[in-house]
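Quick check before the chapter quiz. The format below is the same one you will see on the exam, so make sure you can read both the input and the output lines.
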Amino acid sequence: MLLLDTTVLIDALRGRPLVARLRELRAAGQVPWICAINVEEMMRGTSAAEERAVVRFLAGMRLAPLGGAEGELAGRWRRDFARKGVTLSQADCLIAAAALGVGARLATGNPKHFPMPDLSVEHWPVGS
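Here is the expected output.
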């Protein structure tokens, strides 16, 4: 299973080469996961003219739940990494927690944003 970070979703919508990787997943019968954070980030960056296409694109994914357990995990990561002098974003921590919550690997263009233990991260270079 694979949860997609927003960087990957944006590049796929732009038709960049990694869209082929998503097609391969679909052909293999794998439906990628997203979470509410991805949806919010995508909608925030979408124009009114693009909104229908973005909503349709996201509807083809599985939605990972974000509940109390994921919030607690994300908060622990932010706190523990901050004590080491590393600042992690709330959004990235929640995305990572959602991936772990459904037992998925995380596909991202920014693997350095996800140093969380026990999280399997796949680097999907974006912008190419």
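If your answer matched, good. Residues 2-123 form a domain with the Rossmann fold fold (CATH 3.40.50.1010).
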